[in-house]
Amino acid sequence: MIRSLTLAAATPARRYAGTPVARSVPLALRPLISAPRWASTTPTTATAATTTSTLTTAATSSASIANETTAAASAAPSTALPTSASTDAAPTTPPKPTNKLELSDAEQAALDAERKAATDAQFHGSHHWVYERALSVALLPTIGYAIVVGADPVNDMILASTLVAHMHLGLDQVVTDYVPVRRYPRGGKAANWALRGFTLLVLYGCWRINTQDVGMAESFRRVWRAREEREIVEA
Amino acid sequence: MLRTAIASPLAARSLALRSVTPAMTVVAARHSSSGSQPQDTLQAVAAVKQLRPTSPHLTIFARWLPMVMSISHRFTGGGLSALFYGAGLAAAAGAGSADFVQAVAALPAPIFYAGKLAIAAPFAYHTVNGIRHLAWDSGRFLTLDAVYKTGYVTLGATASARSLCS
């Protein structure tokens, strides 16, 4: 389920049919993809590529495929050009396509920078969302174990960290919704920092209970059964 | 009738500035007791605007169950977190498990059992509704029919939370 959650969060947005190819390609790779139909300045190269592709099927490149579709869309008028243009352009066949992109250093650096910027942005956006859901899923077996089995040093530590993290994220959302920083600059900032301070104190309290006392699960069980156990003691 | 409370004067001023017609300034200036400064007029306009009745919004929504369950999810989560944070702060201040047990055992019986129910029911609600949220996040049960059916499952689990209390 985590994998499907991650996949659901990581699938790119669907491209509408009207979007030109160049729009869905990252900035650093655009020079290598052929320009869209409206950007082509020489109609003869379009027809030359079309005629060469019909003549030599082996010489098709990605550029000519795009030009094929654009030429096919505007079929009759452009093919009416004289064939003298095609014979002039016939010797210069487009290069064979390879699966490896030969990028220059500058292009590779630009691609890496863009990927890093997208990844950094994702950590505050979609990655945070996935981690929050993963934390909620991890909370279920931890609480189940604490209820069914009870005291356990490892599980108490896992319980403390996951439960307090889950609560902090939830309360952070509440603070963000009801005390937004844009509307209450000082109040929002104070609420956020107060929440972080409280979370740290609660984490310390849980750690204290887990290390110097009986542990979170056992202490909760004792509080839950306080009256029953007191009656047993008094009886 | 619900009235939106404007907490900060800055927000009140911006609300007044956003859509002020000339007629409103005339009416406000006529009603304002203090001088005819632009600032007083704007505040008078804001005051006049706040006296107007608001259209019914939350109470007339036809499909109210998903909305109520959503806010209850937040409410139960926030309430349980507040209780846990209180206990956590007490533990950080030096209270041990024995102190908690002593304080709770000293409560009178009705309050003790009502308190246990008041913790078990929100916990069951928040947990089962949380699983429902995770199912939505994975793309399941997103039709209106499924939303209502899983909502009833959550309410059933909350009603049977009394079994957690024993």
TrEMBL record, chain A:
Annotated binding of heme b, by residue: 166
Pfam families: CybS
Annotated a ubiquinone binding sites: 178
Keyword line: Iron, Membrane, Metal-binding, Mitochondrion, Mitochondrion inner membrane, Transit peptide, Transmembrane, Transmembrane helix, Transport
InterPro entries linked to this entry: CybS, SQR/QFR_C/D
Signal peptide: none
Record's keyword annotation contains Hydrolase: no
Recorded GO MF terms: heme binding; metal ion binding; ubiquinone binding
Record GO biological process: mitochondrial electron transport, succinate to ubiquinone; tricarboxylic acid cycle
Membrane topology: Multi-pass membrane protein
GO cellular component, one term: mitochondrial inner membrane
Region (Disordered): 73-107
Subcellular location: Mitochondrion inner membrane
Residue ranges, compositional bias (Low complexity): 73-91
Family (UniProt): Belongs to the CybS family.
Full protein name: Succinate dehydrogenase [ubiquinone] cytochrome b small subunit
Automatic annotation (TrEMBL), chain B:
InterPro entries: SQR/QFR_C/D, Succ_DH_cyt_bsu_CS, Succ_DH_cytb556, SuccDH_FuR_B_TM-su
Major place of residence: membrane
Membrane topology type: Multi-pass membrane protein
Assigned GO CC terms: membrane; mitochondrion
Subcellular location: Membrane
UniProt GO BP: mitochondrial electron transport, succinate to ubiquinone; tricarboxylic acid cycle
Annotated GO MF terms: electron transfer activity; metal ion binding
Alphabetical UniProt keywords: Heme, Iron, Membrane, Metal-binding, Transmembrane, Transmembrane helix
PROSITE patterns: SDH_CYT_1 (PS01000), SDH_CYT_2 (PS01001)
NCBIfam families in alphabetical order: succ_dehyd_cytB
Identification of the protein by name: Succinate dehydrogenase, cytochrome b556 subunit
Organism the protein comes from: Allomyces macrogynus (strain ATCC 38327) (Allomyces javanicus var. macrogynus)
Lineage: Eukaryota, Fungi, Fungi incertae sedis, Blastocladiomycota, Blastocladiomycetes
